[in-house]
Amino acid sequence: MTVRAWGCYLARVRLAVSLTCALGTALALGCSKAEPERPPAGKAADTGSEADDQSRFDRQRRPEVIVEMLGLKPGMTVADIGAGTGLLTVHLVAAVAPGGHVVATDIDGSVLDHLRARMNAAGYDRLVERRVVKPTDPGLEPARYDAILLARVDHYFGDRVGWLSRARLALVKGGKLAISNRVHHRAAAMHAAAAAGFELVSETGAIPGEFVAVFEVKP
Ligand SMILES: C[S@@+](CC[C@H](N)C(=O)[O-])C[C@H]1O[C@@H](n2cnc3c(N)ncnc32)[C@H](O)[C@@H]1O
Known about the structure:
Layout: H1 3-27, H2 50-61, H3 63-70, E1 77-81, H4 89-96, E2 101-106, H5 109-122, E3 128-132, E4 145-151, H6 160-168, E5 171-182, H7 186-195, E6 198-204, E7 210-217
Bound molecules: S-adenosylmethionine.
């Protein structure tokens, strides 16, 4: 290849890489290191305003569906597992305020810093507790939670059944577990939830490309 042809080839490769990154950034919302396509925490403003990120997320992920399926009401206590930067958390806390409480966990403390800024801006900081947890440990107190949400996180668990069995102990009597993820993770999630002692009480495919399944502890 001549020097000139080589230069053209490199320019094309650079263009392809930048387009791929831009597309990944546009699609990636609310995650952390575990999702390689997401920009580092604190960089979201590079792709548009926080309000734009939130409204794009809300259009795609329809948080109101999860809030309704979990039956969230003021005064409830909810755990948001793998909360990331808090794009869903802000809807959970809005549903349980006033008087309610959200515990937002993540294995990555830096995303929780971003979540804190989001909660501050929305006026909910005092209702949301952030917890950095170990990958195998839900990090939740026993018999405290009306609802536990796992949104796009259960596929990261090394042992789904073990993790869900430990989380089961954190629910109050009649408490609900919601698992929401891309449809290709559905079979593994359903199998693990049943093996961990949960029974399915409702499910929807109302969010494009996703399933949302709500469980209670088997009697
Ligand atoms: C794809 S993001 C999902 C963020 C948010 N829940 C959502 O639905 O947009 C997954 C998040 O889960 C976190 N995570 C991965 N494994 C985890 C674990 N075992 N416990 C808690 N958080 C975890 C990652 O750090 C990341 O912030």
